[in-house]
Amino acid sequence: MAERPEDLNLPNAVITRIIKEALPDGVNVSKEARRAISQAASVFVLYATSCANNFAMKAKRKTLNAGDVLAAMEEMEFERFMEPLREALEVFKKGQKGKKEVSEQRRRDKEKKVDCENDKSREEEEEDGEEGPMEEEQEVVEEEEEVEN
């Protein structure tokens, strides 16, 4: 857990970016207002986490999941955020699925490349092995012809 209360605050850079994205251009926010928003956001996150943790504990789990967070939001009477939260969750899941598919495709491509290289080296070994005995047989035949002559 956090050693100091300040450790529980969200990073100032993140809060500043969120504020800038939420407000129209040209609107300035004082340092005190940013600090107040940061503290309020931190308290909100801690409260939502605590409520979500209660749902996980009731289900005898130690890991919070998206369902726990959604139930916590409903319990905290933030129903108007439920739909945007669900939409953001779907976008996140699709992004993760896409990343997983790309990673899996890269792994398969790498395996194919290794298999192709292994096949080529086997073919080369077989070709090398076949040429040796054929050359020896040809030399033996030539020597036998010379002996007969």
Structural summary, described in words:
By secondary structure, the chain is an all-alpha fold. It folds into two domains: 1-77, Histone, subunit A (Orthogonal Bundle), CATH 1.10.20.10; 98-149. Helices cover 78% and strands 0% of the residues. The protein is built from four helices and no strands. The chain has helices spanning 12-22, 31-58, 66-75, 82-148. Helix 2 packs across helix 3 and helix 3 (66-75) packs antiparallel against helix 4 (82-148). The protein is elongated and about 105 Å long. The N and C termini lie far apart (97 Å). The model has no long low-confidence stretch (mean pLDDT 83).
Quick structural overview:
One of its GO terms (biological process) is leading strand elongation. The protein is mainly alpha-helical and 149 residues long.
List the helices and strands and how they pair.
Layout: H1 12-22, H2 31-58, H3 66-75, H4 82-148
Helix pairs in contact: 1-2, 2-3, 3-4
